[in-house]
Amino acid sequence: MTEMDAIREAALVSKAWPYEEARKLLKRWPDGKPNGEPMIFETGYGPSGLPHIGTFNEVARTTFVRQAYEELTGGAPTRLIAFTDDMDGLRKVPDNVPEQEMLAQHLGKPLTQIPDPFGSHESFAHHNNAMLRHFLDRFGFDYDFLSATECYSSGRFDEIIRQVLRNWDGVMGVMLPTLREERRQTYSPILPVSPSSGKVLQVPVQVIDAEEGLIAFEDEEGRVQQSALGGNAKLQWKVDWAARWVALGVDYEMAGKDLIDSVTQSSKIARVLGGRPPEGFNYEMFLDEKGEKISKSKGNGLSLEEWLRYGSEPSLAFYIYREPKKAKSLHLGLIPRAVDEYWQFRGNYAGQPTEQRLGNPVHHIHNGRIPAPESLPLTYGLLLNLVSLPGVHDKETAWRFVQRYAPDTSPDTHAELDELIGLAVNYARDFVVPTLKRRPPNEVEVAALKDLDAELAKLPGDADGEAIQNIVFEVGKRHPFESLRGWFQALYETLLGSSQGPRMGSFIALYGIDNSRRLIAEALAKPA
């Protein structure tokens, strides 16, 4: 059995969520898509606000399912469409962008017709689309970028618009029961673009000629009759989603839990239009530190730049991969643990049998091609403790400590470790150092610290972390602490200024015995 066969066999029964999702596509097309056509995956993006991780998350998770499907089929063709709804009318001005007054003057216009408040692109939508593409490219995603404006204006969606007009009553039959009475009076599946104001109008529409695409409506200047084709109109949200699925032949699209009703209605409309709604699932939402849903317009979520200032790219993908159907917080305080857990799973991968590898998040993050090295000589948490100490607040100084601890490492040969040291310096400077406050030791702790200092003085300068850890344990046992946990907490609070910290043996080996003894001396010199 080849490695590919072994992976496929294990994937067919794997409980890892990407394989469970990918198996839905095997049922959808048991014999594969006709004529060898690719399986179409899609993610949608509303570019009315700045992109954030919650938006980006959909592309990452969809890619995991796409890769799982390719493994299940031995490499059947696939395609990922990243679709931007950039013809939507701007309904409100986002809180986190400049030129608020200017944007307010363009409310209602398609996002591609609104000037860029940042002054760098052709329009507001072009700016935000460029940001999204930059994010996707940075992670090396394989995708085709499609713009709603281009699809409507080029005529690509003309036939599906005709199909909506032909099935007007059927579409209305799906939508009207879901609307309040007041909304029913003005609802239209078609949103015409006013020839006088350029705004996307929410007005009743009359179908004049479905085949010709002619509609009539009232705008600011009175009754208008014009074509709905060629970018002169766009489809209402849920109709638009359904029409896109049908027009582009989408087989798989996931969505947030807040869109469950939208998925239901759009699926019904897709069937009215003669299509088949895609497979997919509804994931839970990301929450900020206050437990509130992350919003593009509020700007209360993390940007990719913020995460990548303090954590590695794989650590972000790792956090996104895990538990997609569980609501999770997403804030800067999570980064250190995400980084270390990612490396823990990466270190386990090589020794796991195939079935366990397929359940390991790093398999999906790296598409089965795990880069070397498999592990690092020290954790992000340990680095944070190191670079939080006085005199070790820069990358170059930190490297001198690391190379003494792990002599075979260097910035040239260990790029990921080099990156991690820089990230730890950033995180420690911005979030750790300002909170540190070393307290003086009490009477019991003074005696124990003196004992530890005496024991460390007996060790050679190159003693390893395990030997030092054993001594730390033995010293703690010799003194009347309620538990060893109390002893270690005393070390953290008196030496490092934190309520929690690293494995002390590893830390002392990294920081150096002489330096660690100086820390102890400083603690003992503090008045009680």
From TrEMBL:
Has keyword Aminoacyl-tRNA synthetase? yes
Listed InterPro entries? aa-tRNA-synth_I_codon-bd_sub2 (IPR020751), aa-tRNA-synth_I_CS (IPR001412), aa_tRNA-synth_I_cd-bd_sf (IPR008925), Lys-tRNA-ligase (IPR002904), Rossmann-like_a/b/a_fold (IPR014729)
- Main location class: cytoplasm
Q: What is its EC number?
A: 6.1.1.6
Q: Keyword Nucleotide-binding on this protein?
A: yes
Q: Where is the signal peptide?
A: none
What are the binding positions for ATP in this chain?
296
- Identify the enzyme class: ligase
Q: Which UniProt keywords apply?
A: Aminoacyl-tRNA synthetase, ATP-binding, Cytoplasm, Ligase, Nucleotide-binding, Protein biosynthesis
Motif range ('HIGH' region): 47-55
The record's subcellular locations are: Cytoplasm
Q: Supply one GO molecular-function term.
A: lysine-tRNA ligase activity
For this protein, the record's PROSITE patterns field holds: AA_TRNA_LIGASE_I (PS00178)
**Motif 'KMSKS' region: where in chain:** 293-297
What's this protein's family per the entry? Belongs to the class-I aminoacyl-tRNA synthetase family.
PANTHER family in UniProt? LYSINE--TRNA LIGASE
Its name, as the record gives it, is Lysine--tRNA ligase
